[in-house]
Design goal:
By secondary structure, this protein is α+β, with helices and mostly antiparallel strands. 31% of the residues lie in helices and 17% in strands. It has one domain (42-303): Jelly Rolls, CATH 2.60.120. The chain contains eleven helices and eleven strands.
Length: 308
């Protein structure tokens, strides 16, 4: 039964239970997609199997276009599209750079989203087609153990700043779902000076770290300092996602992470996100009233609004 059939109070309580109790989330909320996947799941091997193992163990995995995707991938097309966006928005990026150090409570002004705050969902666009490639969907669905839903894509241009860390530059968990899989493709070299994503391995729901750190509240969101995270995961175990252009990063951002504190150079990345089909997070796409779904079951499931 859809959550929408329950009274609002019951929906909130069920949503809380589903988020924090794996069996309810999987076999209550997402039973249909879990069972559908169970009878169709492919056998992963090679690089996809290695990435899945790293995700299950650490919550984060690094790969590359050349290692994961074949010659038919649309990376070159995506690269051209990102280059075009950078040119089209050059003046606006320069204007935003002048304001990047201002503490704006309404948005993360150190990240400029090249497809806008709420991108139009277009299955024919390269931004959707890249996310829906077979190896990527196989990893996402295997990690969740169900058919997942594509919830978001965009191109982020992170601007250098000089102020103290704030918002997502501080340690936090994302809240869209019980498991969350985000994919990042690097279109610039990302080193320490570019504000790489930094991850506390094992703090995802599947991980071995079961104790949460102390925290403080920033704009109504729980944030955590380096010292507080180090109390549960030693600093020498943190994973910093360095990489050159063409690097692919998978991360379950329901685990503790931070990123975007660029000091020396800007960071440019394509990103997309997968959740369970019944995630109660707000709609992040400008979704058309009607979409022609692909013949591939996994792709159709990923684009469907709801199928539980």
């Amino acid at each position: 039964m859809s959550l929408r059939n329950y009274p609002a109070t019951i929906r909130r309580r069920l949503a809380y239970a589903g988020r924090h109790f794996t069996p309810t989330w999987r076999y209550g909320f997402n039973l249909k997609s879990t069972l559908a996947y169970k009878f169709d799941q492919p056998l992963l091997s090679g690089e996809t199997a290695r990435i899945l193992a790293d995700l299950n163990r650490n919550g984060v995995a690094l790969s590359s276009i050349s290692e994961l995707l074949d010659d038919d991938s649309c990376f070159d097309e995506l690269n051209e599209a990102v280059d075009q966006l950078e040119k089209e928005w050059a003046d606006r990026i320069a204007a935003e750079r002048a304001k990047a150090d201002e503490h704006d409570l309404t948005r993360k002004n150190f990240i400029f989203q090249l497809l806008g705050e709420q991108p139009r969902l277009d299955p024919e666009s390269v931004y959707a087609r890249f996310a829906l490639q077979r190896p990527i969907l196989e990893i996402a669905n295997a990690y969740f153990g169900m058919y997942t839903r594509l919830r978001f894509y965009n191109v982020w241009h992170t601007l250098t700043t000089n102020t103290g860390a704030r918002e997502s530059q501080l340690w936090h968990r994302d809240r869209e779902d019980h498991l969350i899989l985000k994919l990042f493709v690097y279109f610039s070299d990302i080193n320490e000076g570019a504000g790489p994503l930094t991850y506390a391995p094992g703090t995802h729901r599947k991980g071995a770290v079961k104790r949460d750190p102390e925290f403080f509240i920033e704009n109504g969101v729980r944030r955590t300092t380096d010292e507080q995270i180090a109390d549960i995961v030693p600093q020498n175990e943190w994973i910093k996602a360095f990489g050159s252009k063409g690097t692919i990063l998978f991360a379950d951002t329901a685990g503790f992470h931070k990123g975007g504190l660029a000091r020396a150079c800007d960071r440019v990345m394509y990103t997309c996100m997968f959740t369970s089909p019944t995630s109660q997070a707000k709609e992040l796409f400008d979704r058309p009233a009607y979409i022609t779904l692909p013949a591939s079951k996994a792709q159709a499931m990923a684009l469907s609004l709801r199928y539980n």
